[in-house]
Design brief:
The complex is a heterodimer of chains A (about 250) and B (about 250). Chain A contains 10 helices and no strands. By secondary structure, chain A is mainly α. In chain A, helix 3 crosses helix 6, helix 6 crosses helix 8 and helix 9 runs antiparallel to helix 10. The radius of gyration of chain A is 23 Å and the shape is globular. Chain A starts with a helix and ends in a 6-residue tail after the last helix. In chain B, strand 7, helix 6 and strand 8 form a beta-alpha-beta unit. Chain B has a 6-stranded mixed sheet, sandwiched between helices. Chain B has a 4-stranded antiparallel sheet with strand order 2-1-4-5, covered by helices on one side. In chain B, helix 4 crosses helix 5. The chains are: A mainly alpha (about 250), B alpha/beta (about 250). Chains A and B meet through helix 7 and helix 8 of A and helix 2, strand 6, helix 3 and helix 5 of B.
Chain lengths: ~250, ~250
């Protein structure tokens, strides 16, 4: 059989539609009243997943750039700062970091006399952004270093300072090489946002878990959950391809 | 030389253990044209890269207009405003149009208005004989045109000294002369120039002083006609005979 996965999917769906005793697709059947209520409940986690992912991605892109810049310095001390951050952050698994941020950081704040509560929403965003920033920093570094040294030398000889050289010469060229891997990281963030369910964030995965507890139909509900993530990722991919097409032609001068 | 625009005294430069410049000294007067030649790896590019501080020298003194270069950012900023540079690989900014390449420095580093910067850019494009390519991107131009844009870009900063680091070495043969012609015109207009090149015809035509380098040192220097007709050193004689054969 050439396409076992496709065949399996078709089998599952056909079996599901026949609503035999073994399947429980009725729990997410939008044509029935209770099914429709369930689907609405599940899909309503979408906005939290999107918000967490978007804010975390924007923060990660900003933190990543700040972390990447010292790695380009001629001074060893600055490069060391970058190395320590990247190696340390990317070695921490996401779940332990999430626990540390959500349960641990408020204690740190309290011991410093600060009263900063961390709710599941911001706990998840901080964790995702920081964890991902180590990877975005590496993406920036590789992208910037791929721009020939002559470009920054030419910028210096026409009197541009470091900031201007980055802003007007290096980054506009590097962005085309940085964007595709950054998009990958965004997809990674969307998927990893599922961990926020563990600290009680009402996003897609949490909603699915809660419905499974009351309906006890894990296969059907988690199948829908997977398709929800698939939909999100497909939308991001399409967006990135559109962006790449728009930017791609510039360098060749068309 | 008391009225030297650029003066190097006992300059030393190491790349790791490699001693690239050994007690190198050179004085360049206002309006003077200096051509530096020598075999590859002899340190000629390092000389021009040290003058505009793309490379830091470790020992010795470099003065621009009598003021010594230091690590101080102000000192470096001063060189950038007085010394222009033309690279072997042009190093034009591929994401900008020709006009934007030329106006970037004047607008961002000098604070000129866009209108003034563009007027200046068009003036210098005319001077390098490509006034009608302003809105194209560098990749749409031939190598010779690109290098002339690069020269115009340097001129837009109105430097006192223009450095050329093998400006024709990356060009197809038929494009070399259009770049050299522009350089000769600049020389005739009195621009102070330091040119690293193997183009001996150009050297003979415009150089006031020709420096032959080998292994990080000046082997011989003087008027080009002296070096061509009666070189004192065996190394210089051998080098010139090799590149003049063709």
């Amino acid at each position: 059989m050439k396409r076992p996965f496709l065949t399996l999917t078709v089998l599952v769906l056909v079996a599901g539609c026949s609503s035999s005793q073994n399947w429980g697709w009725y729990v997410i059947d939008p044509t029935t009243e209770s099914g429709w209520t369930n689907v609405k409940f599940l899909v309503s986690g979408m906005s939290a997943t999107i918000q967490i992912s978007l804010i975390a991605a924007v923060l990660s892109i900003a933190i990543g750039l700040i972390v990447a810049l010292p790695s380009l310095s001629e001074k060893r001390g600055w490069r060391l700062v970058n190395r320590v951050y990247v190696e340390f952050i990317r070695s921490i698994p996401l779940l332990p970091m999430l626990f540390w941020v959500f349960y641990g950081m408020p204690i740190v704040f309290r011991s410093m006399g600060l009263n900063i509560p961390i709710d599941p929403f911001w706990g998840a965003i901080i964790t995702l952004a920081v964890s991902d920033s180590a990877f975005t920093a590496e993406i920036y570094r590789a992208g910037i270093q791929s721009i020939a040294r002559g470009q920054s030398e030419a910028a210096q000889t026409i009197g541009l300072n470091y900031y201007q050289t980055m802003r007007y010469v290096i980054l506009p060229q590097a962005i085309r090489r940085i964007l595709p891997p950054l998009a990958n990281q965004f997809i990674y963030i969307v998927k990893m946002s599922a961990f926020a369910s563990v600290i009680g964030m009402q996003e897609l995965t949490r909603r699915a878990n809660e419905l499974v507890v009351t309906e006890y139909r894990p296969l059907e509900i988690y199948t829908l959950l997977i398709f929800e993530y698939l939909l999100l990722v497909l939308i991001i991919s399409a967006g990135v391809r559109w962006l790449e097409r728009r930017m791609g032609s510039d360098e060749r001068g068309q | 030389m008391p009225d030297a625009v650029v003066e190097l005294v006992g300059v030393n430069k190491w790349y790791g253990a490699f001693h690239a410049l050994k007690d190198f000294s050179l004085a360049i007067g206002s309006g003077e044209r200096v051509v530096i030649c020598g075999p590859s790896g002899s340190g000629k590019s390092t000389v021009v890269r040290c003058i505009n501080q793309l490379e830091r020298h470790q020992k010795g003194t470099i003065r621009i207009d009598g003021v010594e270069l230091t690590d101080d950012p102000k000192s470096v900023a001063r060189i950038r405003s007085e010394v222009g540079m033309v690279f072997q690989q042009f190093n034009l900014f591929p994401h900008l149009t020709v006009l934007e390449n030329l106006t970037l420095g004047p607008i961002k580093a000098r604070g000129l208005s866009r209108k003034d910067a563009e007027a200046r850019a068009r003036h210098y494009l005319e001077r390098v004989h490509i006034p009608d390519q302003a809105d194209k991107r560098p990749m749409q131009l031939s190598g010779g045109q690109q290098q002339r844009v690069a020269i115009a870009r340097s001129l837009c900063m109105e430097p006192r000294v223009l450095l050329f680091d093998e400006p024709t070495s990356a060009l197809d043969p038929e494009m070399i002369s259009e770049v050299l012609d522009v350089m000769v015109e600049l020389a005739e207009d009195g621009m102070t120039m330091v040119v690293v090149t193997h183009e001996m015809g150009f050297a003979r035509k415009v150089a006031d002083n020709m420096v032959f380098m080998d292994a990080g040192e000046t082997v011989e220097q003087g008027k080009p006609e002296h070096l061509f007709t009666s070189p004192k050193s065996e190394r210089c004689r051998k080098f010139l005979s090799q590149i003049l054969q063709h």
